[in-house]
Amino acid sequence: MYCSVLMGGFVNVFTYKQNINCSLRSFTTKTPDLPPVLFQINTNGFVALAKPPAQQEYLGKMPSGFKMIAALLGDLDNSDGHGKVYYRQDSSPDVLNQAAGHIRRAFPSDEGVEPTNALIVTWESMAAWGTSGRGDGLDAKRNTFQLALVSMESSSYAILLYPRDGLQFFSTSVEGESKLLEAGFSEGIVSGWFWNTQQGTYFRTTTDDEISIRELTKYEPDVTGRLVVMVNLYPDETKTRYPIPETSQPRYTNPEPSQPRYSPFAPRYPNPDPVEPRYTNPKPVEPVPPHSRPQHPQIVVIDEDEDLNVNVFAYNLETCANNRHKCSAFADCRDYSQGYCCHCRPGFYGNGRDCVAEGKPQRMNGKVNGRVFVGNSPSAVEFGNNDLHSYVVANDGRAYVAISNINGTAGPSLQPLSSLGGVIGWAFALEQPGYQNGFSLTGGVFSRQAEVIFQPGNERLSIKQHFKGIDEHDHLVVSTELEGRLPAIPLGYSVQINPYKEIYQYDRNLITSSSNRDYVITSPDGDVQTRNYQWRQTITFQSCPHGETSRPAQSTQQLSVDQIFVMFDADNNLIRYAMSNKIGSVHSGPPEQNPCFTGRHGCDINAVCRPGEDLQFSCECVTGFAGDGHYCHDVDECQGGVQVCGQNAVCRNQPGSFSCECSAGFVFASDGKTCIAENRPVDHCQRGSHDCDVPQRALCSYTGGSDYVCSCLPGFTGDGRACRDVDECQQDRCHRDASCSNTQGSYICRCSPGFHGDGFQCSPSECKQTSCQLRFLMYVPQCDEHGAYKPTQCHQSIGQCWCVDANGQEIPNTRTGPGSTPLCESPTVTPLPIGPTPRPDVHPIAPGTHLLFAQSGKIEHLPLDGYRMKKEEAKPLLHIPDRVVIGVAYDCMEKMVYWTDITGPAISKARLSGGDIIPLQSPEGIAIDHISRLLFWTDSMRDTIEVSKLDGSHRRVLFDTDLVNPRPIVTNPAYGRLYWADWNRDGPKIEMSNMDGTERTVLVKDDLGLPNGLTFNPGDQQLCWADAGTRKVECMDPHRRLRRQIAEGIQYPFALVSFGRTLYYTDWRREAVVAVDRQSERETEEFLPQKRSRVYGITTTPTQCPQAYNYCSNNAGCSHLCLPRLGGFTCRCPDAADGRCEERNP
Question: How many helices (H) and strands (E) does the chain have?
Answer without folding.
Answer: 8, 80
